[in-house]
Design brief:
The chain is about 45% helix and about 15% strand. The protein has about 625 residues and is of the alpha/beta class. The relative contact order is 0.12.
Length: about 625
């Protein structure tokens, strides 16, 4: 019996390691600078997690299938089917997690619950954009099935029942010990991968089958993870004196302007000529930016739509390396832009081209009265992709809502859809080609920009009210090896029937600055927003984003990487004139670098404490 258990554990562990080497190897070749030695070291270190999931699956087979052991032929067939399912879980969960890593710069953790209601769309995206990985996964599963067919595996039992029971009990204890990482006070979470001491190696050591199983079991209400240390009341008082010493709120007399905020799904500044690209993929946005208020660079505070929505609407950070949506943090009290405007008479609506899903419901939790998805659209023969309506259909729906008679101002947020996919209706629409990922991305972006141009033209023609038009990407759709392409996004604010300051401000900003700027343009001020109005005379530059447990703070053409758990300064960079290239510099180069590090760390500790305390409204 012992030998049969060991054989199954070893077999599943080897499959887990082979899957990791195959798929994460693909990721490291394409998206990372890890050396072969570092990769192999991380793979070997991470075998403990592969062994854990293998012990867990073998333990489940012992508990679930043993009652059928008396029916020998049936038991053998049942065990064969069970091991095939286990093999498929290991292979395809590793593949799916690698795809997510390539798109969101992190493994599946708390994000596991964000895909509810979007399963078909996610699957369609994977099939159309990562077909090579799917073929590889299927080939691996076929090879595994052939191996099982040639070398059938099952748990054999001793002729003496008490011997089998004793071995089974010992094995169950071993499984429990493995899952707990010993017998410490807390179970071993997938985050233990970071104990390897290097963020890049932790990425490789990670076990997707174990992580996804773990977060499926703990549930979305318990899956929010905190990296930053707890701050005492006294520490928070000291931090407030540095971060937000004189909070002021003025909301009594806001200008009754319409606000139209377009979240440009997955747009990246790297592909745009006005941000230094050598291709002209977005002529309409670029022309509008010349007549609008913008910044030299703008960076995303997240890697998923719900993260961009939260930072944009609430001017607060997401948890380091994760999202508010889909976790226990979602139920915390927030005082966000749509809620503030709704309380003062604005009609608030959120429009997207896909099903409402997590994004639409989350938007309503932040204060939008109405949320519209593809099932609310009238049948008008508009083009659709796998996610739902493409941009022309989304813009038409939003324009119809804005054109309806109303005596009150409107705040409408629009999440576009064309760039959520790689599909375009006609072969000729791929003006930059479709042979490579970059060509396809730019072709789809160009198609979306044409729709944006038509939308802005129609909006200007139909609206008679003073209107603030704000265009910003919710996030990008790429990873990056050693630059900022994965967080550099387009941004502008344009006045319609309204004079607002124009020009490109000579600094970097991020999502958290949008809500304060909108309120400022409406004639108000909010003291608990963590961002600042771009029009403030005393604006202090400080854009930020996080990847896993790393916090990045950008200001004055420099960037500092801070370990969110220890608060230690890990690396410093100079940002190039193109706003995406990076050059390593000595962190002790100047007093300004030291002050920048302190500002970033203070913001990190102060904002994360409020977030996890549910006290962002007292920021």
């Amino acid at each position: 019996m012992i030998l049969s258990l060991v054989k199954i554990v070893v077999m599943l562990t080897l499959l887990s390691v082979i899957s990791k080497v195959t798929f994460l190897g693909w990721h490291e070749i394409n998206y990372s600078d890890s050396s072969l030695v570092e990769f192999l070291k991380a793979v070997i270190w991470g075998v403990r997690f592969d062994l854990t999931i293998s012990l867990l699956l073998t333990g489940l087979s012992l508990l679930l299938l043993t009652p059928f052991a008396y029916f020998k032929r049936f038991y053998q067939g049942l065990f064969h089917a069970w091991l095939l399912v286990c093999g498929a879980w290991i292979i395809f969960s590793t593949m799916g997690d690698t795809i997510y890593l390539s798109q969101a710069n992190r493994h599946v953790t708390v994000d596991l619950h964000l895909g509810k209601g979007m399963e078909f769309e996610l699957l369609s995206t994977v099939v159309t954009q990562f077909s090579g990985l799917i073929v590889t996964a299927i080939a691996m599963l076929i090879a595994f099935a052939a191996f099982l067919n040639k070398f059938p595996q099952k748990i054999t039992f001793s002729q003496r029942w008490y011997k089998s029971v004793s071995i089974a009990l010992v094995f169950v204890v071993a499984v429990v010990a493995a899952v707990r990482g010993g017998f410490s006070d807390k179970p071993q979470t997938p985050m233990y991968a970071y104990k390897i001491g290097d963020i890049n190696q932790a990425r490789i050591a990670w076990s997707a089958p174990y992580a996804i199983t773990y977060y499926s079991l703990v549930g979305e209400d318990k899956s929010g993870y905190r990296w930053t240390p707890e701050q005492s009341s006294l520490q928070m008082v000291k931090l407030q004196a540095k971060v937000n010493p004189n909070p002021k709120t003025k909301l009594n007399r806001l200008n009754q302007y319409d606000v139209v905020l377009v979240l440009l799904e997955s747009w990246m500044a790297y592909d745009m000529q006005s941000y230094g690209s050598n291709v002209n993929a977005t002529p309409n946005f670029d022309a509008l930016r010349d007549q609008s208020l913008s910044t030299a660079a703008f960076y995303s505070n997240g890697f998923r739509t719900v993260e961009g929505v939260f930072a944009t609407m609430c001017s607060q950070p997401n948890p380091v390396g994760g999202s508010v949506a889909g976790t226990r943090l979602e139920s915390m009290p927030y005082r966000c832009l749509p809620q503030l405007l709704k309380e003062r008479g604005w009609e608030t609506s959120f429009v997207q081209g896909s099903g409402q899903g997590m994004v639409g419901a989350f938007a309503q939790s932040l204060g939008f009265s109405d949320s519209y998805g593809k099932f609310e659209y009238p049948e008008q023969g508009q083009d659709q992709n796998y996610w739902g309506y493409m941009d022309d259909g989304i813009y038409d729906f939003a324009l119809d809502k804005l054109a309806s008679a109303s005596d009150v101002p409107r705040f409408i947020a629009i999440n576009t859809g064309t760039t959520h996919d790689s599909y375009l209706p006609n072969k000729t629409d791929y003006v930059f080609g479709d042979e490579t990922e970059e060509q396809t991305r730019r072709s789809v972006l160009h198609h979306a920009d044409l729709s944006l141009g038509r939308f802005v033209k129609r909006l200007k023609a139909q609206t008679t009210r003073p209107t603030i038009l704000l265009l910003v990407a919710d996030h990008t759709m790429v990873s990056a090896k050693s630059d900022l392409r994965h967080v550099s996004i387009p941004f502008l604010i344009h006045g319609i029937n309204l004079d607002i300051p124009t020009g490109t401000l000579p600094f970097s900003a991020s999502h958290k600055d949008i809500a304060p700027t909108v309120v400022d343009l409406l004639g108000g001020q909010v003291g608990w927003f963590s961002g600042q109005s771009l029009l403030a005379k005393d604006y202090q530059e400080g854009a930020d984003f996080t990847v896993n447990n790393q916090f990045y703070w950008l200001a004055n053409d420099k960037m500092i990487r801070i370990n969110a758990e220890s608060g230690q300064k890990e690396a410093c960079y100079r940002v190039g004139n193109d706003t995406v290239s990076l050059k390593s510099i000595d962190c002790s180069e100047s007093k300004r670098t030291k002050a920048m590090y302190e500002n970033g760390l203070n913001y990190l500790l102060y904002s994360q404490q409020h977030l996890f305390d549910g006290s962002t409204a007292r920021y």
